[in-house]
Amino acid sequence: MDATGAGDVFAAAFILALAATLPGGAAEAAALAACFAAASVERAGLEPLPLRTEIERRYASTDGQQRRGTVHVSVVIAVANQKGGVGKTTTAVSIAAGAAARGLRVLLIDADPQANSSSALGVRPDAGAGLYEVLIEDRPLAEVVVATETPGLWLAPTTSALAGAEVELVTSMAREYRMRRVLEPVRAAHDLLLIDCPPSLGLLTVNALAGADEVIVPVQCEYLALEGLGQLAHTIELVRANLNPPLRLRGVLLTMFDARTNLGRQVQDQVRRHFDSTFETVIPRSVRLAEAPSHGVPIQLYDPLSAGALAYERLVDELLAQLRETASASAAAGPVGVGHRAGAHTGEADGGS
Known about the structure:
The protein is 46% helix and 12% strand. It is of the alpha/beta class. It has helices spanning 6-19, 25-43, 50-59, 88-101, 116-120, 131-137, 165-169, 178-187, 203-211, 223-227, 229-242, 262-274, 287-291, 299-302, 307-333, and strands at residues 75-79, 106-110, 146-147, 153-156, 192-196, 214-220, 248-257, 282-284. An 8-stranded mixed sheet has the order 3-4-2-5-1-6-7-8, sandwiched between helices. The protein has 2 domains: 6-59, no CATH class; 75-333, CATH 3.40.50.300.
């Protein structure tokens, strides 16, 4: 209650926005209500609230379509590494949850037959239709997507049936482009789409790379994890040359880092020397990160103050800052393809692994 009426406007708009059951929940309702309240202040002839410019920038686009979040293009990122146990699923789930908490509409696609991403978000494997029905039986992806406990985060779950997809895709027409085809109808509805790839370089991973704009590669800070990194970089180059020319390596992410060991520091130095796109953020080894999936929630909900949660929060901030830079560079340079950054390093190895 004030002279401008902004308090009344905010309250009414907030209640209406909640009644509309926006995907972002209370946070998105508050953002929209704040925009209306700021407008009422301006109409009263007072100095506009600083929040209004940011809210309008987030919700209004030049083509008349609504876009939420601060990333103005829909980006598909595959989280891939053919080696298991490197924190791939934890990375995919944590980035998805962190981006959703920042107001983005996020879709996580569980493309691993082990269904770890589904379990980590509290969705029981084999509870219904999943990615197998989408890739093999041509079921629309939107029909299998489910909401999660994190507002703004949706999941395309998988079931154990996906294990047979590798064999069934062999005889399919345009088998490498199945993932790209099923993602196209849902891209416009999300700011960020993350694909949790299986720990292999089979057809499911190739499908994910052929349908993605960018790749994030988690690498455990141990010597054996380095051996397959050169092979994965070569696979990315093959996919780029033959299936998906705009594909870019967004970055290598160092995980399970133990600062007490010389090996961890040596692995970090080698990765940074060979891959200039390595993220500044390093994910520490953390028991809490390992515990979170058993509770069916991301680390941000399980223990938001743990070292692992804080590290992934820093990673999300770093990633979104890079995506904003990419979007700005692409807009300035013209239509050069989603995920392409003029003059950016692609992160290929300088030789060896």
